[in-house]
């Protein structure tokens, strides 16, 4: 394959796909299992319902999203060069979920890997995929955000169980030499100071699975919601603002903010900081809750399919999550 000057190649999203399971847990359901109510959940989070995968694993969600994507493009699975799966709920420690997806979709010429960055996972994976494309060495990269959050959710913990749902969404990255389109900039960060504010304590090499770790519920999400909320509000708003400033963008230049969907109040604070009205913010948290790595591509897919995103639209993607991890990305939409 001929190497090209990286500076002359942008990575552009050329196809999108999504998969959400059929089973719905609405707020009424949670009223029946923990002490909560619809009003509290909607006012504090914006969530009304989430999807739950009853049978199957994260690779099945991811495969569903890829199959949906392939119905919309002439690209065939055996043309895919790389598969990157952003997830914190892989089917197993190893092999990677990317391997499982590769086999299920028949991407027989691909290599790939999983990427763990929690709620910022899709953003980190998209930048990674874009770098492979810009290198000139790869032409087709599948970037997937997939999480089966229900498998690590404690449904007796009202602080957390109302927040999460299961979903997957995928995008195809291809090169474009028209630098007016595609991924133009990103700002990404990690800070391990947040490691104990949102994490899963057990199951890894620090606290391997044992009767004790199960008894102590160490295989579920632990979150200090209030602490994370405080840093997430500032972190996501600041990073979204910073990428606008860096690229000389004013609010009228931006068609949409595409925020990670963790809490409607965090989303609104970010939009406010950017000077964007509600109609310029992609929001579907009401229907799906927090699906971790899947939220951003799920928004992109739905809004594009509803005809709300047009070729040439400038988008700012922004996320904040466990780690801490956070970041923003500036891209110009390239699908007609
Ligand atoms: O996606 C990765 C990053 N994660 C986030 O960005 C999540 C950030 N955190 C949040 O979104 C919010 O902190 C939550 C939605 C998790 C919680 O909202 P909050 O406004 O921070 O509530 P809180 O934790 O301060 O709790 C307020 C009250 C407490 O009662 P007291 O102590 O004031 O009597 C909680 O016990 O609400 C109580 N509470 C509930 N009440 C009804 C907590 N969960 C529930 C519930 N139903 N499900």
Task: Provide key terms for this protein.
336 residues; alpha/beta; Peroxisomal Thiolase, Chain A, domain 1; 2 domains; five-stranded mixed sheet; four-stranded mixed sheet; 13 strands; binds oxa(dethia)-CoA
Give the amount of beta strand, in percent. 15-25%
Number of domains: 2
Q: What gap, in angstroms, lies between the N and C termini?
A: 28 Å
Overall pLDDT: 96
**CATH architecture label of the largest domain:** 3-Layer(aba) Sandwich
Tell me the name of the CATH class of the largest domain: Alpha Beta
Radius of gyration: 19 Å
Major sheet attributes: 5 strands, mixed
Which class of secondary structure composition applies to the elements?
A: alpha/beta
Number of beta-strand segments: 13
CATH topology of the largest domain, which one?
A: Peroxisomal Thiolase, Chain A, domain 1
The CATH fourth-level homologous superfamily of the largest domain: Thiolase/Chalcone synthase
Distinct compounds present: oxa(dethia)-CoA
The ordered H/E elements are EEHHEHEHEHEHEEEHEHEHHHEE
Low-confidence stretches: none
Overall morphology: globular
Strand order of the largest sheet: 1-7-6-4-5
Number of helices: 11
Percent helix, as a range, is 25-40%
In short:
This protein is 32% helix and 24% strand. The strands form four sheets. A five-stranded mixed sheet has the order 1-7-6-4-5, sandwiched between helices. A four-stranded mixed sheet has the order 8-13-12-11, with helices on both faces. Strands 2-3 form a two-stranded antiparallel sheet.
Describe this structure in words.
There is one protein chain. The protein is built from eleven helices and 13 strands. By secondary structure, it is of the alpha/beta class. The protein has helices at 27-33, 38-45, 58-70, 97-105, 121-134, 158-161, 211-215, 225-246, 264-274, 285-288, 295-305, and strands at residues 10-19, 24-26, 49-51, 82-86, 111-115, 141-148, 166-176, 182-190, 198-200, 221-223, 256-259, 314-321, 325-332. It has two domains: 6-179, Thiolase/Chalcone synthase (Peroxisomal Thiolase, Chain A, domain 1); 183-332, Peroxisomal Thiolase, Chain A, domain 1. Oxa(dethia)-CoA (UT7) binds at residues 36, 40, 44-45, 119, 158-159, 162, 225-226, 228-229, 232, 262-263, 266, 290, 320-321. Oxa(dethia)-CoA binds at residues 36, 40, 44-45, 119, 158-159, 162, 225-226, 228-229, 232, 262-263, 266, 290, 320-321.
């Amino acid at each position: 394959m001929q190497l090209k000057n990286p500076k002359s190649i942008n990575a552009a999203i050329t196809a999108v796909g999504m998969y959400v399971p059929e089973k719905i847990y609405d707020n009424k359901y949670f009223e029946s299992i923990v002490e909560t109510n619809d009003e509290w959940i909607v006012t504090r989070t914006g969530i009304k319902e989430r999807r739950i995968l009853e049978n199957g694993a994260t690779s099945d969600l991811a495969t569903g999203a890829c199959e949906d994507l392939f119905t919309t493009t002439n690209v065939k699975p055996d043309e895919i060069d790389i598969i990157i799966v952003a997830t914190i709920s892989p089917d197993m420690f190893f092999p990677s979920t990317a391997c499982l997806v590769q086999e299920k979709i028949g991407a027989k010429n691909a290599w790939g890997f999983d990427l763990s960055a929690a709620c910022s996972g899709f953003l980190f994976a998209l930048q990674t995929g874009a770098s492979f494309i810009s290198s000139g060495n790869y032409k087709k990269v599948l970037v997937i955000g997939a999480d089966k959050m229900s498998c690590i959710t404690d449904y007796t913990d009202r602080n957390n169980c109302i927040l999460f749902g299961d979903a997957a969404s995928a995008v195809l990255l291809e090169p474009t030499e028209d630098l007016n389109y595609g991924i133009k900039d990103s700002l990404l960060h990690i800070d391990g100071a947040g490691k104990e504010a949102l994490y899963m304590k057990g199951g890894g090499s620090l606290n391997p699975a044992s009767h004790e770790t199960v008894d102590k519920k160490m295989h579920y999400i632990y979150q200090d919601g209030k602490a994370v909320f405080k840093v997430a509000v500032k972190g996501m708003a600041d990073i979204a603002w910073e990428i606008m400033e860096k690229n000389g963008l004013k609010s009228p230049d931006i068609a949409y903010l595409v925020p990670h969907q963790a809490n409607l109040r965090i989303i609104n604070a970010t939009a406010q900081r950017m000077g964007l009205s509600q109609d310029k913010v992609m929001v579907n948290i009401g229907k799906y809750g927090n699906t971790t790595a899947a939220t951003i591509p799920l928004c992109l897919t739905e809004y594009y399919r509803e005809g709300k995103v047009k070729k040439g639209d400038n988008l700012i993607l922004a996320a904040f999550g466990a780690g801490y991890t956070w970041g923003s990305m500036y891209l110009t939409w390239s699908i007609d």
